[in-house]
UniProtKB/TrEMBL annotation:
Pfam families: Methyltransf_16. Coiled coil: none annotated. This is S-adenosyl-L-methionine-dependent methyltransferase. GO terms for molecular function: S-adenosylmethionine-dependent methyltransferase activity. GO terms for cellular component: cytoplasm.
Length: 357
């Protein structure tokens, strides 16, 4: 089926719905296509082919539990959109898929919560051109708040999605990343690192995390997105000497232009070590820029980070990049219920310029 038989508005709606579906958004947060769109047999077949059809790429689809959770209300909405039962049809493919899913054995809630599943992100900015094939990043994630491995690093959090949106929407940042070396602190699933390596043209990306299990998962996600050759991945313990790390053992002349960190200020206990590593980076690379995206869940915890930066005389600038309500987001969807702020941090003036007064 060609897209030419669908109106521009119908195509916009079902593409938006697909992005949200592949990112495993909760049903209540989905932008369901209009009744007029769902009534169209062409739209129904597009939805089947791009959201539910199992073929050679079906391993990247959401898990069966999620597919069933979305397909049931989708079919109800399609049925309710019917105006003339003799003229308006319901897709046989969608109906057959619903029947198959309803009779498929499903894991129990506890088991499902600990499974890793594919989550697909679409790095599009508001002014991205309309493309027949949209750019995608596919990550294996555990959507539980804390995984069975006892880590929060196996899912992508809101601060990383907000920072990713900022990076792809800011021309000067895109220009500053292209051809440069980037380090990510607390990389988790690797969304930011893989985005820089695959879509923003960084010459080298170093993805680091303090959890060895998370680092192993990072290797998998880099390989799945065909950027393993453009990335170095390893454990980095905050608070330990940077020059003694594996990065410098591999390349004694290693340098960095940009450091990224998302949701790395979540725990007051880790802030001294984090800021120590940032201070070490400024000493080794005086002109490096550090961009931190922080979800402000606890004002006291974030105040401790701000105080530590001020104590070390870092230059901290809050970036003017406001949150967009989820219902207005078109990609990289994330909750805005809790404030998220982005900060650009550079070395103390005298460190960057020893002759500064």
């Amino acid at each position: 089926m060609t897209q030419g038989s669908l109106s521009e508005e119908a195509l916009r709606q079902i593409r938006l719905f697909r992005r949200q579906y592949l990112q495993l958004l909760d049903a209540q947060n989905l932008a369901w296509p209009s009744s007029e769109t769902l009534r169209s047999s062409q739209a129904q077949e597009w939805i089947y082919e791009h959201l539910f059809q199992t073929d050679d790429v079906s391993r990247f689809l959401p898990p069966e539990r999620y597919r069933l959770l979305i397909l049931k209300p989708l079919m109800s909405k399609i049925e309710n959109s019917i105006v003339d039962p003799e003229e308006d049809e319901i897709s046989d493919n969608l109906m057959s898929t619903l029947a198959e899913l309803m009779f498929s054995p499903m894991p129990d809630d506890a088991t499902a919560a600990q499974q890793r599943n594919w989550v697909t992100y679409t790095p599009l900015s508001e002014d991205s051109p309309s493309l027949d094939k949209e750019p995608e990043l596919k990550l294996l994630e555990n959507r539980a708040v804390i995984s069975g491995a006892g880590t929060t690093g196996l899912r992508t959090w809101e601060a990383a999605l907000h920072l990713s949106s900022y990076l792809i929407s800011t021309p000067e940042l895109i220009a500053s990343i292209k051809g440069k070396r980037v380090i990510e602190l607390g990389a988790g699933t690797g969304l930011l690192s893989i985005l820089c390596a695959s879509h923003l043209g960084a010459s080298q990306v170093v993805a680091t995390d303090g959890d060895e299990g998370v680092v192993q998962a990072l290797h998998e996600n880099a390989a799945f997105n065909d950027v393993k050759d453009a990335m170095d991945i390893g454990v980095l313990w905050w608070g330990r000497a940077l020059k003694g790390s594996w990065m410098f053992e591999k390349d004694p002349s290693f340098s960095c232009d940009l450091v990224l960190g998302a949701d790395v200020t979540y725990d007051k206990a880790v802030i001294p070590a984090l800021v120590s590593t940032m201070r070490d980076m400024f000493e080794v690379w005086p002109h490096v820029q550090i961009i931190i995206s922080a979800t402000i869940r606890n004002s006291d915890t974030f105040a401790a980070f701000e105080y530590a930066c001020a104590h070390n005389e870092f230059n901290v600038h809050e970036v003017d990049y406001p949150l967009i309500p989820m219902e207005q987001q078109t990609s990289l969807f994330h909750s805005t219920a809790v404030p998220i702020k982005i900060f650009s941090i550079t070395a103390p003036a005298k460190q960057r310029d020893p002759y500064a007064i």
